[in-house]
Amino acid sequence: MTEAEEIFMAHRPLFCEVCEDGKMYYDGNGIYHCGSCGAEALDDYGKIRRFLEEHGPDSAVAVARETGVDLGIVSMFLKDGRIEIPNESSMFIKCRRCGCSLRYGRYCRECTVEMAGGLSSAFRADMGERPDPTKNRNRRKGMQYWGV
Ligand SMILES: [Zn+2]
Ligand SMILES: [Zn+2]
User: What is the mean pLDDT of each run of 10 residues along the chain (148 residues)?
Assistant: First the structure.
């Protein structure tokens, strides 16, 4: 499991914070409800998803800031294609090595290759993708359904 996955798993609402003893049931799309009092709770994916539903597409940095979800987790869902940040976005993550714009990840492809001497090493997990304004135009907006 990656660090982001571990954080995500640790953040899942397993017990109700409202009645404090209810067991939480998963409804899908990151939404849970309490079996005792019916209170709703969101995991990190649900928070990201709800934020994008209410505010429209935004950058990973903005999503992380507004939802309080760890940027690594936001990046993880982007990378998996579970959520999408538009190529037209004005805010991007910066490559930690060369500073170029990335839609997700920590390093751009070029830096990843240089640092790792190839794409097969551990650095690959941190590799992001640069925004490409020519793409995304005809793609679905928002995010894809994520079935757990
Ligand atoms: Zn409850
Ligand atoms: Zn770079």
Answer: 89 92 90 95 93 82 91 84 66 83 83 76 71 58 38
Whole-number Å distance, alpha carbon 102 to ligand 2 midpoint, is: 9
Shared domain check, 96 and 71: no
Ligand 1 centroid to Cα of residue 91, in Å, is 38
Is this structure's pTM higher than 0.70?
no
How many A from CA of 31 to the centre of ligand 1? 14
CA of 60 to the centre of ligand 1 (A): 31
User: Which has the closest alpha carbon to 17: 48, 39, 46, 45?
Assistant: 39
Q: Quote the domain boundaries for residue 13.
A: 1-85
What is the Cα–Cα distance from 105 to 71, expressed in whole angstroms?
9
Is 122 part of any domain?
yes
